[in-house]
Design a protein that fits this description.
Blueprint lengths: L2 H14 L5 H22 L21 E2 L11 E2 L6
Parallel strand pairs: 1-2
Keywords: Membrane, Transmembrane, Transmembrane helix
Pfam families: B12D (PF06522)
Protein name: NADH dehydrogenase [ubiquinone] 1 alpha subcomplex subunit 4
């Protein structure tokens, strides 16, 4: 590389970022990637249904259907399940 280009590149890199800030960039980048992965995982989980067919599923629950995962001291005839995906 000729000397003027090398000097220009050196001054650009010196003023573009501080070497001391590299760990902060790495940590912030890792946090953003981790948060994006976690939110994507939550949004595509088996309990999440992205549909507009039944906007109010709580209206289809009958009186004798249980919706809880764990029922203590309760007797229900049948348990509710969301069939439409």
């Amino acid at each position: 590389m000729p000397a003027p280009q090398q000097n220009l590149r050196r001054s650009l890199m010196k003023n573009w970022f501080a070497v001391e800030a590299i760990p902060i960039y790495v940590i912030i980048g890792g946090v953003v990637v981790g948060a994006s992965w976690y939110l994507g995982r939550l949004a595509t989980g088996s309990q999440v249904v992205w549909t507009k067919k039944n906007p109010t599923p709580w209206n289809t629950i009958k009186q004798d259907e249980g919706t809880k995962l764990v029922t203590v001291n309760q007797k229900f005839e049948k348990s509710w399940s969301r069939d439409t995906l």
